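Module 6 notes. Inverse folding takes a fixed backbone as the condition and produces residue identities as the prediction. Think of it as a translation problem where the source language is geometry and the target language is the twenty amino acids. Below is one complete input and output pair. Work through it position by position during the lab.
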């Protein structure tokens, strides 16, 4: 019986890879990844950083993303049962966190297949750690829904949750929807609500801005939004 390894990879800066994660990636039989090209580049960079690594056989890469998850799962389970060690990675950060993989983990657990975590970078925790907002409790809600009707319900429920739980709320947003999201948050919380927005974490143009919803909306109206966003409120 093989083992499924859940390996966190850098969210931007390649130097954030841990020695354990590097060793696991470079010695795995198979790597299941969202984008085989990106993971191939990552393996080359990791090999350069991993001092003393002697390449024997390169891991075989399997494409595994949202649209193929159910299709690929039986193949991966069969390989694990046959004794192959498989690493699951996302394009960046910790797999299964707003990325595919939890169904595979659940299936492996049900079949008694060993599962190990190689912890590491996560945009959620990275943004929270520099936000200056309370960290004793937080609620991560992933990306807002895409449909307008679902988004209205989402913001209403989020407002109620924050009031009830008295917790920091964290969500992701794509650059092309950040202004829409800030507008909708203004409608829910008001222009003066204090928030923190991080983007491009660990990269060259890393930015964390703090201020009112209206201030940050005006900033991104005049500065083209780029990179994936983490919003904390």
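Target side of the pair, the amino acids:
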């Amino acid at each position: 019986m093989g083992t499924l390894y859940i390996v966190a990879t850098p969210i931007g800066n390649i130097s954030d890879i841990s020695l354990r994660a590097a060793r696991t990636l470079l010695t795995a039989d198979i790597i299941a990844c969202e984008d085989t090209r990106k993971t191939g580049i990552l393996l080359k960079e990791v090999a350069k950083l991993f001092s003393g690594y002697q390449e024997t056989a390169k891991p075989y890469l399997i494409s595994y993303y949202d649209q193929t998850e159910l299709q690929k799962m039986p193949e991966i389970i069969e390989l694990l049962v046959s004794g192959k060690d498989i690493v699951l990675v996302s394009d960046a950060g910790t797999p299964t966190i707003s990325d595919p993989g939890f169904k595979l983990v659940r299936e492996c657990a049900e079949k008694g297949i060993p599962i190990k975590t190689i912890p590491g970078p996560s945009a959620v925790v990275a943004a929270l750690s520099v936000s200056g907002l309370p960290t004793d409790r937080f609620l991560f809600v992933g990306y807002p829904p895409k449909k307008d009707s679902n988004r209205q319900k989402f913001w209403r429920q989020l407002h109620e949750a924050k009031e009830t739980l008295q917790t920091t709320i964290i969500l992701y947003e794509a650059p092309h929807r950040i202004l829409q999201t800030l507008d909708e948050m203004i409608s829910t919380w008001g222009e003066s609500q204090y928030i923190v927005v991080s983007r491009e974490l660990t990269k060259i143009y890393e930015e964390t801005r703090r201020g009112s919803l209206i201030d940050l909306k005006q900033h991104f109206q005049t500065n083209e939004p780029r990179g994936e966003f983490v919003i904390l409120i």
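Reference fact for the lab report: Helices lie at 19-27, 36-49, 69-81, 102-110, 123-131, 148-165, 178-189, 213-222.
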